Amino acid sequence: MRVVTGVVGNDVHVVANRLIEISLKERGFEVFNLGVNTYLEEFIDAVIETDADILLISSLNGEAEGWSRDLLFLKNRFDLDNVLFAIGGNLSVGEADADDMIKKYQAYGYDLVFHQVDLNEGLDVIENTLKKSRSVS
Amino acid sequence: MFQKEREIITTTPYTDSFDFDEIEDFIKKASKNLFISHKFKKSNKILVQPRGGFPTYEKVFELYKEFAQAGVDVLPLTIDSNTRLNDYEMAKKMLALSEETDENMLNGYPLVNHGYRVTRKMVTHYDRPISLRHGTPDARLLIEVALASGIFEIEGGPITYLLPYSKNFPLDKAFLYWKYVEKVCAKYSTLNEPINRESFGPLSATLQPPAIVIVIQLLEMLLSLEEGVKSFSVSFSQTGSISQDIVSSNVIKKLARKYADLFGYSDANIHLVYHQWMGAFPRDKEFSDSLITTSTVIASLVKADKMITKTRDEAFGIPTKEVNASAVRNTQYTLGILKGLPNITDPEEEENLTQMVDDILEAVFNNPADTLWRKVFNSIKSGIIDIPFSPHIINNGEAITVRDKDYNIRFYKRGKIPISDKCLAFERSKIDLGGKSLVENIIKDIGIML
Q1: What positions of A carry a catalytic annotation?
Q2: How distant is the Cα of B166 from the closest Cα of chain A, in angstroms?
Q3: Which of A106, B110, B245, B381 can bridge B91 by disulfide, Cβ–Cβ 3.0-4.6 Å?
């Protein structure tokens, strides 16, 4: 399973990014880590280039909201229906209710949304979702 | 040729017009008290230096007054982040806003925009050494202005000011820009007391393995001495384990001298700088005071020549001048009462660390490139030098470190760092993940002071 991951926007929180990479590798994923300071277009390019199964975007400073508005447009432009889109971290700049954030980001085009969720719990959900989709297809 | 290059660099509407003859004359006649290289020779205590900088001249002047009253040994001048990225236009705008509104619209002093004629007044007024703290990959103009102002210590280096701070800035360019810095420092070092260069050992301040810190310190030292610098400070920050700090200090002192002599720079003076805890600070201010005091005790045990202080407001942002000065006062008091310190050595740990450093350096020196900076560049690119938690794309990012039960930082995975199987086995024999996942251990290890 191939994952493209990275931190979106002008966000330099490298520690969390690295922990995600290590965790994904421990779980047996093939990881393409674009690191901090990554723009949405760069993520999409990498997904196409690597033929990834999952795109896992993270955001620590809440910038993701501003950057995610173009996601549906980019998703529709390329044929990315088979790719699982996930986002996690602190998804709002200030305080926010997790259920509101999930709805909002699902509307942006993400399949899985993790607002302030423990890293391993989030990765468990991703793995289970992938297993289910494999058993269906 | 070089002078022509300097004229091009310093000719810009964003700073004073440069009068190189006048600047040389100023440095020739400058007070010895402005030179930290001189203070290192004369002083028999650990010099205390805080961090700090504000946008306006007046606020820095007030900050220095507060520091002077607290008994500071070395004053800092921290530069704002626009200047660090060479965006002097934005720095100019924000400086104007800061002056109009009395709000701090910059996180440091935009030295280039203020210029050397104005800044020099403040420097000579306080008549103490000042250390330039920045984080600039291309610091050519900045250090020209600093040295012309009477700031005779320049922190940074091509590796230590790039890999922890930037994702994309080209590393090969950083080496060449810093070569310029070394050359100017070397040139001015012949006029009076030497200009001191200091490397930035904390790196990304997150579980940095001492072997890699020391390798990078020694390489930046050699790159600087190669250009004619005569006074250099290597540095590292508190690891979290007192014993690892002492081992690191013993090894870095021994190896800095060894490699400086080996490369033919036995006339250069090498100093050790210790950074108080650079990781995440507790939000309880009493706990922060305790942490700072503990750091001061360790700085004494490792026999640093200078230490750089933190403040009780570290978890909350840029400290006020009063809070900053009180940390200096606290640290000076603690230093004053620390008497009868033991001499501690740990031969087994020191041998292991020395072996790792020597092995990595050997691989760097054996790179077939023609110059030292290219050997170092290639070594970073190929992962021979690898910094945990660097945001830079050139950094290999394969090596993984965790703490052992005594909080020593150990290699869990070496990646392409050429440490021997024996050393890796020694490191790994100390690690006990306690039945938890690697990532859970790392998260715990990062937050030990919280």
Answers
A1: 11, 13
A2: 9
A3: B110
Q: Are residues B355 and B329 in the same domain?
A: no
Please tell me whether residues B241 and B331 are part of one structural domain: yes
Chain B environment of A37 (Cβ under 8 Å): 167-168, 391
Contacts of B389 in chain A (CB under 8 A): 14-15, 18
Task: Look up the ipTM and state it.
Answer: 0.84
> Would the CB atoms of A18 and B389 count as touching at under 8 Å?
yes
Position B342 in a domain: no
B168 CA to chain A: closest CA distance, Å? 9
- DSSP 8-state code for residue B345: -
Same domain, B401 and B274: no
Expressed as residue numbers, the domain containing B130 is: 2-337
Residues B328 and B412 in one domain: no
Kindly state whether residue B343 falls inside one of the protein's structural domains.
no
Q: Nearest-CA distance from B389 to chain A in Å?
A: 6
| Residues B290 and B402 placed together within one structural domain of the fold | no
CA distance B258 to B247: 16
pTM of the model: 0.95
Mean pLDDT by 10 residues, chain B (450 residues): 96 97 98 98 97 97 98 97 94 96 92 98 98 96 98 98 94 98 98 98 97 98 98 98 98 98 98 97 96 98 98 91 97 97 97 98 98 98 97 96 98 98 98 95 95
Write out chain B residues lying below 8 Å of A33, CB-based: 397
Structural domain includes residue B206: yes
Nearest to B127 by CA among B70, B189, B188, B65: B65
Q: Indicate if B273 and B319 belong to the same structural domain.
A: yes
> Which residues of chain A have a CB within 8 Å of the CB of B438?
22, 26
Give the total number of structural domains in chain A: 1
A14–B439 CB contact, under 8 Å: no
Residue-by-residue DSSP string for B304-316: -SEEE---TTGGG
Burial B327-363 (b: 16+ CB within 10 A, else e): bbebbbebbeeeeeeeeeeeeebbebbbbbbbbbbeb
Look up residue B209 and give its two tokens. 């393995």
CATH of residue A30's domain is 3.40.50.280
> Is A22–B167 a contact, with Cβ atoms under 8 angstroms apart?
no
Do residue B333 and residue B355 come from a single domain? no
Asked if the Cβ–Cβ distance from A19 to B442 is below 8 Å, we say yes
Binary contact (A120, B167; C-beta < 8 A): no
- Of the partner residues B167, B391, B443, the one whose CB lies closest to the CB of residue A19: B443
Percent helix, percent strand, percent coil in chain B, to nearest 5: 50, 10, 40
Report the alpha-carbon angle B227-B33-B20, nearest 5. Answer: 50
From the list B262, B213, B136, the residue with the least C-alpha distance to B385 is B213
The CATH number linked to B56 is 3.20.20.240
Range of the domain at A85: 2-136
